[in-house]
Amino acid sequence: MLYPHLGFPLTYLWKRRCSETSWKGAVKGISRECYLFDTHDSFSLHQFFGIGGVAQVILGKGEFGKYLSINLAFGIGVTMGIHAAGGISGAHMNASISFTHCVLGNLPWRKLPAYIIGQFLGSFLAASLVFCMYYDALCEYSNGHFIVMGPNGTAGIFATYPAPYMTLLGGFFLATTVLMLCILAIYDKKNNGALEGTQPVITGLLVLVIGMTMGINTGYAINPSRDLPPRIFTAIAGWGIEVFRAGDYWWWVPLVAPTLGSLVGALAYKLLIDFHNQSALEGGDKKGKDNLQTNHV
């Protein structure tokens, strides 16, 4: 095909443009899939701060922080993660949240694998960095033996394990139900949501209060992306396969329970709040139109 006024093939222009912009297209493609961005905020901020906070409290034997320090570390980490990548990827930092957004239609299903891969890689890297940073302290604390649970257990720094009295049924999804319901409320512009720009802080406070009120049973077992990758890392780093056997094979609960809880939280918000809010908005719009017509007459 030729340009009539220039006399050279259109295919030449097309090939030239593709060669000039192929690298730009690749970068934009990665950006659109949000792979690197969710890796960044999950790894360098949320997970690193949270796991690091747990390590300092446990390895410091209470001299360098208490349980509240862990809650603050995770909460502030969430806030920083949202500030870093919220405008790009949404900064889900939680595979259950990403999955639920796909179910709600807020996120295309084709993007879900990229989100989960990014979150899992970021969490694995966070665990490895905290391990390297506190390696000497870990060896000192446990006399060189990496133990999963018990008085000298250190695997709980990286992943969640149930309290001795916990059953598998008792470890299920209430905390993630509350998390998802509140997140939808915070970001719902049709409702009385948080003011623009304050959502990261309020979301961080939400994670803080969940840890303060529901953390005694299982810790922060509300996020598959926070739990499985560090657990895999500890299995590789010296704790062994026991990290999957501990707590009556507890490892699968932080994967399934948060996902179910997130779906229940979304359903509860839709039925109990959003459905009625939509009806009120429609009624308000109709009333406004009637008033407009009356004024016009």
From TrEMBL:
Record SUPFAM superfamilies: Aquaporin-like (SSF81338)
Listed name of the protein: Aquaporin 7
Single GO BP term: renal water absorption
A GO-annotated cellular component: basolateral plasma membrane
Keywords, ordered alphabetically: Membrane, Transmembrane, Transmembrane helix, Transport
Subcellular location: Membrane
Domain of life: Eukaryota
Keyword Zinc (UniProt): no
UniProt keyword Transmembrane helix present: yes
